[in-house]
Amino acid sequence: MNTFKPVLTEYIDQQDCHTLPFYKSVGGYTALDKVLKMNPEDVTKEVKDSNLRGRGGAGFPTGVKWGFIPKDSDKPKYLINNADESEPGTFKDRLLMNKAPHQMLEGMVIAAYAIGCHTSFIYIRGEFYKEYKLLEKVVTEAYENNLLGDNILGSNYSLDVVIHRGAGAYICGEETGLIESLEGKRGWPRIKPPFPAIEGYLQSPTIVNNVETLSCLPHIVNRGAGWFKSIGPEKGPGPRLFCISGCVNNPGIFEEPMGVSLKDLIFDRAGGIPDGKQLKAVFPGGSSSAILTANEAIDVMMDFEELVEKKSMLGSAGVIVMDETVNMVQACLNIARFYAHESCGQCTPCREGTAWLVKMLTRLVNGGGKPNDIDMLFEITDNIGGLIDFSKGSFGKTICPFGEAVAWPVRSFVEKFKNEFMEYLTQEKVVA
Amino acid sequence: MPLLKIDGKEIEIKSGTTVLQAAEANGIEIPYYCYHPALEIVGSCRMCLVQVEGMPKLQVSCNTFVGDVPPERKVDGKYDMVVDTQNDLVVQERKNILEFLLLNHPLDCPVCDQAGECYLQDYSFKFGNAHSRFDEAKRVRPNEYLGSQIVINHNRCILCSRCVRFTQEISGTSELFVEARGYNSKIAALEDKPLDNLLAGNVADICPVGALLSTDYIHKNRIWNLKEQPSVCQDCSVGCNVDVFSQRDQILRLTPRENHDVNGYFMCDIGRYGFHRFEEIERVTQPMVRNGESFDALNWDKAIEKTADLINKSNGKTAGIVSPFHTNESNFLLGIMMNGVLGSLPPITKKEITYQSGFRISADRSPNRRGMNNICGEIVADLPSEIKARAIHGLYILDDGVDRESDDVWKEILAKMDFVVVQTYAMTALARSANIILPGLAPFEREGTITNDRDRVQWLRSSLPKKGESRADWEILMMVMKALDKEEQTFADVGQVIKVMGEKFPAYKGLSFFRLGPHGMSLNGKASG
Amino acid sequence: MKSNGKLKQRFTFSDLERVEQIFSQYPDKKSATLPLLHLAQSQEGYISNSVIETIADLVDCHSAVVMDCVSFYTMLYTKPQGRHIIQVCQTLSCSLNGADALVDHVTDKYEIKPGETMANDRFTLMKVECLGSCGTAPVVQINKEYHEGLSTQKFDKLLESFE
Hints:
The structure holds three protein chains of three kinds. By secondary structure, chain A is α/β, with parallel strands linked by helices. Chain A has helices spanning 20-25, 30-36, 40-49, 62-67, 92-99, 101-115, 129-144, 175-182, 211-229, 262-269, 294-297, 304-309, 328-342, 348-365, 373-385, 402-416, 418-426; strands at 77-83, 117-124, 160-165, 206-210, 239-246, 252-257, 260-261, 279-283, 292-293, 301-302, 318-323. Chain A has three domains: 20-229, Rossmann fold, CATH 3.40.50; 239-323, Roll (Ubiquitin-like (UB roll)); 328-426, de novo design (two linked rop proteins), CATH 1.20.1440.230. In chain A, helix 14 runs antiparallel to helix 15. By secondary structure, chain B is of the alpha+beta class. In chain B, helix 9 links the parallel strand 18 (318-322) and strand 19. In chain B, the strands form eight sheets. Chain B has a seven-stranded mixed β-sheet with strand order 17-16-24-23-22-18-19, covered by helices on one side. Chain B folds into three domains: 3-98, Ubiquitin-like (UB roll) (Roll), CATH 3.10.20.740; 135-225, Alpha-Beta Plaits (2-Layer Sandwich), CATH 3.30.70.20; 281-522, Rossmann fold (3-Layer(aba) Sandwich), CATH 3.40.50. In chain B, helix 2 (88-101) crosses helix 3 (119-127). The mean pLDDT of chain B is 92. In chain C, helix 3 packs across helix 4 (63-72). Chain C contains seven helices and four strands, in the order H-H-H-H-E-H-H-E-E-E-H. In chain C, strands 2-1-3-4 form a four-stranded mixed β-sheet, covered by helices on one side. Chain C has two domains: 16-72, NADH-quinone oxidoreductase subunit E (Arc Repressor Mutant, subunit A, Orthogonal Bundle); 84-160, Glutaredoxin. The chains are: A alpha/beta, B alpha+beta, C alpha+beta.
């Protein structure tokens, strides 16, 4: 029962939905035309007014971020489209790139115009080769049709788009790690200050925006900030692509307004849990969020503020469903191992802490549990990620949010399923 | 100027200073590893976290800059920033970070060179836990040579990346890099491009733990056994400030000493390992007189008597050869003594090398050419012609101390001499051609001043005791001058020589050990030559 | 980092036009490093020391800096791999949907464990982290293509099509 009319994914079932002629036939690039006749500051104001928040994971207000670009700087400005989708449970950007690439591109040009940028990049994860080849064609098509390059649509504005492939590193989705990678170095995130909006790519003002965030822009321009704000809660509105995977009958992407109920997402849109099994736990916002137990999940509305209240986060809206057959300790180890593999190794707590967690959890799973292991798990996660209370502000100890990203899920597993962890301490080899 | 309150102390500091710099300058200790004043700030070790009022998250003090804030945002109405480095949160955090750093660190202190000067030891003792709670298998890797002079013990490395940044920013040679990522990260160098530039030794100095070690010093001694003597390097005319570590009569190692007017924080490997030269040469420690093809030892009185005799008999036809390897005082006294023709041996020049950061190794590999020229204004340009013109037939030479065969010009000069007196510390080829050898001190035994090629006078301190019957070079010259009846006064120590030197050469007036201090003094363009 | 043996010949790019095009896109030479590495790997199959030296020359930096970059990324290989690289995602959603069985299938049938290559160089097996297609778990990437929603049977048939 889906009553919300999709905005971003309206046409994804059509055969030529990715082509320029199709996109134009449904009103594509009219927003860009409108924007090129506006003042860049007014574009930024409109986006600010819409309360659009980033859809990459951090949820930072987009218009506010654009506003950080210094007005009096004569350095070139850069816009980077973050298509390095690597957060476990998230696969929406891939859909948008495959099925609505021009929508994303139009959003890029709008954003670039607003911040005064003339060279922009799409940083796409290296594994998305098919999508990369498609985007190459799309960008060429755009150049050939005066939608990129010099004097776009007859205006004074020019923009170049460069597609840059990553090479397999989750940390390159973090904005400063991405910038370092774009500069040809290893993806080690930078300390802040300075912030990318002041000193980013090549020490110049840089804005990094997610694929979905950019895809929202043409619609905000066409239908107005007021329309956007009316979808879902006002503080964090708009259509959102929710990704659902794990133990569900119909995994996939569902475009819903912000604030949709998690119960609806799992049991209605995604068809519920196979074989009549019970829900045990769920990640609401990608693997970097704290898990919710079935009891907690049942009345959660999926928006930024509500999830913070529930001591988790909306993040990338990647919902991973775990049913009663899933061994929580194994799942915890799986997630910890992901983070240990992807840790960039630059700062002490993350580099040493993630490996410690994996070693400890592996030992636990293999029957070598020791009495103070549970307490140690709490301690280690606290030492890496700090006090987990997002509402009070992040307390992390690391250069980038990776520390919090590993601490929150692991801690939530141990906290909410302590009994399963305890079982490993008292039994010999427990078979999952 | 912004007002910072740190641990209750009120400090006024320049805008743009970091909290860490402010704390250090005011006697508050904040531990850190990855920060180094000469290198780019990375904030990766997380050891310097402090509590800044108004920010719930702990901040790295190495990257927290203090600046003026608008009046309405000042804390308590007057502070631009309030910092607490001692509260429970910070104290606990330091313990946690240290625990993480020690996870894989082996308990190597008994066999690790860094013991006694190790920041992991010191901070563990001051800020850490008494024991580790790590109960898993440690990551173990074998040692590797990163270059011929530097070995790395990966297990001790805390990945502060100072060494990598050093090769990128200071030497500009980029031999070191971080390999792999996460837990598997390690410092590496390409097999065909090892760490062999002339600043390589510095990475072992800046490594805060015992991971990077100097192969020259490894396992030779313990830092607490050694005497530490601040002095100046004598292997080129830059005059880097150094600390000489010795035990009894042997030098174990040199490390750079901070001097922002000369060498910054670093020194080159030529100077660092140059002291080995003195372990291998044939030392002269007794006055000697030629007897046919060999030499006979004699006592000082006889040697001085014979020398004075030869010089007096030459009726003013003796020339003095000063040396850019000797101190100003020795050159000065020879200048007074000879009062006539002065020259010097051929210069030793190699390549001038400048590194990306501006660190320089000068082409002139003698430490005191500038001083020599300042103090002996009468050095002739064309020595052979002057010798011919004035019919010089005797030489008193302050030997450079470098064993080299004379070139044709000098072979000719020496062949024409009736007598040659060589004041030296080593049996160089030149000494072998002498009639009288007077044993002076080796470079690390000397005390006095030298002037670098940027007109900075620095005090050279002796690090080793005298050997045998050797005497200070200025003392020998004083004795000869006395025997020649030329001596104006008796000098009790080198400080008194400097006083007289200063009267004759105004630029050097008023210099003393205390005035020069540990970093020397610029002549401010007052001296010529 | 040990080299792979003495260099006999310097690596050169075969598609020089593409190299020029890459450089023209970026305001800074060093940004061309990653695209050039991808290009070299598609030409040679892996990143040898010679590739690193050539790229270091082109982007005007030291070889060690390029190697630093290469060793950071999982998609860049410093050793030759098999003809077909099987990358099975092992992160949560795929793990909950049978990814382990796929890995075991390869090990059982082709006798290689994760990280190993067959003696005849046909397959290299790798376990990788989230491939970004959790909705169609389990997902396997073979060379450049994604293969999604694989059952063991489908996977088996698929593998047979790779020589």
